[in-house]
């Protein structure tokens, strides 16, 4: 019997890719000078450290929160790397500049978590509370139809949001790295040598993508809220926010099932809408973007990437370890 490869996932960031394996998180970014800088951290998920957190349907909420925190940290790091030249002091060496990027002050870390909290609050208000207010304003009385209209408005908001961000030039660049992330993961899952050339052969659409997950959340939320009836008070509306982790847990399990069965005709019927939606959130990457994704993936899998051409590796002290 073939041994199953550990599951990996990732996220596109500014001029780079974050990859996550069961043991580590790695972020690889293309610096303004063209070199690839890599930061790797040991990271064992909470669901592996505490068995009770890995229970089906419960683990989805844990994974979602953990992924949000890791994702925001990766985005902040990539933004700092992109602004490295602008923020460099006249007498700075490369190592000194990178030291400031990784060793943030307490207030800089606090600002990052405030940004995460603000983003979560804004998302909940926009995609969960505002549709309730609009549905109530339309005068829908039936509990069934209230939740159907509420869900339809939420889905429309989601699609409008995705379409709107595709119009931003910088976001389109991130979506190219999103495509590179998917292609690299496909290369790993198909057990081919991890090179940019091999990754380029694969699809940029992946069933375990965050876009598919968010679409699943929109659909599952309709089904869950149908059981709650029509919310008549502010308290009943706010109560729905408490069900968001439940919705995330159910959606996570469905995404895991779709990843296992995407080759079957039965499952593809359910998976295709998410894959179609990825036409908005992914773009075909170029060779240099695939190189970055491959470096991030190899680093997350524990490979020594310091010997790769044009790669700079940061050690635990945020000092340049090797420049190839």
Report on the architecture of this protein:
With 324 residues, the protein is of the alpha+beta class. The protein has one domain (9-323). It has 13 helices and six strands. It has a six-stranded mixed beta sheet, sandwiched between helices. Strand 2 and strand 3 (24-30) form a beta hairpin. Helix 9 crosses helix 11 and helix 9 crosses helix 12 (265-281).
Number of strands: 6
H/E element sequence = EEEEHHHHHHHHHHHHHEE
Low-confidence stretches: 316-324
Strand order of the largest sheet: 1-2-3-4-5-6
Strand coverage percent: 5-15%
Structural class: alpha+beta
Which short descriptors sum up this protein?
13 helices; alpha+beta; disordered C terminus; 324 residues; six-stranded mixed β-sheet; 10% strand; 60% helix
Topology (elements, then pairings):
Layout: E1 9-13, E2 16-20, E3 24-30, E4 36-42, H1 46-49, H2 59-82, H3 84-87, H4 94-102, H5 106-137, H6 143-165, H7 169-189, H8 196-199, H9 210-226, H10 234-241, H11 244-261, H12 265-281, H13 287-300, E5 311-314, E6 320-323
Parallel strand pairs: 4-5
Antiparallel strand pairs: 1-2, 2-3, 3-4, 5-6
In short:
The chain has 324 residues and is of the alpha+beta class. It contains 13 helices and 6 strands.
């Amino acid at each position: 019997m073939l041994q199953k490869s550990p599951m990996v996932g990732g996220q596109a960031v500014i001029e780079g890719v974050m990859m996550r394996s069961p043991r580590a998180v790695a972020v690889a970014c293309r610096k303004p000078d063209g070199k690839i800088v890599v930061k790797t951290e040991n990271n064992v998920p909470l669901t592996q450290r505490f068995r009770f957190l890995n229970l089906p349907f419960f683990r989805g909420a844990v994974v979602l929160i953990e992924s949000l925190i890791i994702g925001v940290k990766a985005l902040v790091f990539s933004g700092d790397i992109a602004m490295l030249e602008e923020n460099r002091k006249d007498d700075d060496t490369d190592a000194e500049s990178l030291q400031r990027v990784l060793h943030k002050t307490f207030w800089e870390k606090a600002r990052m978590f405030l940004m995460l909290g603000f983003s979560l609050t804004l998302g909940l208000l926009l995609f969960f509370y505002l549709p309730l207010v609009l549905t109530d304003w339309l005068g829908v009385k039936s509990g069934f139809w209230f939740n159907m209209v509420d869900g339809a408005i939420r889905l429309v908001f989601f699609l409008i949001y995705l379409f709107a961000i595709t119009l931003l030039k910088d976001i389109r660049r991130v979506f190219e790295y999103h495509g590179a992330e998917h292609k690299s993961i496909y290369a790993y899952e198909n057990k081919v040598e991890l090179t940019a050339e091999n990754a380029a052969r694969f699809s940029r659409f992946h069933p375990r993508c965050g876009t598919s997950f968010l679409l699943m959340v929109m659909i599952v939320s309709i089904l869950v809220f149908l059981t709650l009836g029509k919310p008549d008070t502010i308290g009943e509306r706010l109560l729905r926010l408490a069900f968001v982790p439940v919705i995330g847990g159910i959606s996570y399990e469905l995404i895991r099932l779709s990843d296992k069965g995407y080759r079957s005709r039965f499952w593809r019927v359910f998976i295709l809408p998410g894959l179609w939606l990825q036409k908005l959130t992914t773009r075909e990457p170029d060779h240099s973007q695939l190189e970055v994704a491959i470096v991030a993936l190899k680093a997350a899998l524990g490979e020594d990437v310091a010997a790769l051409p044009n790669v700079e590796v940061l050690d635990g002290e945020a000092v340049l370890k090797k420049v190839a």
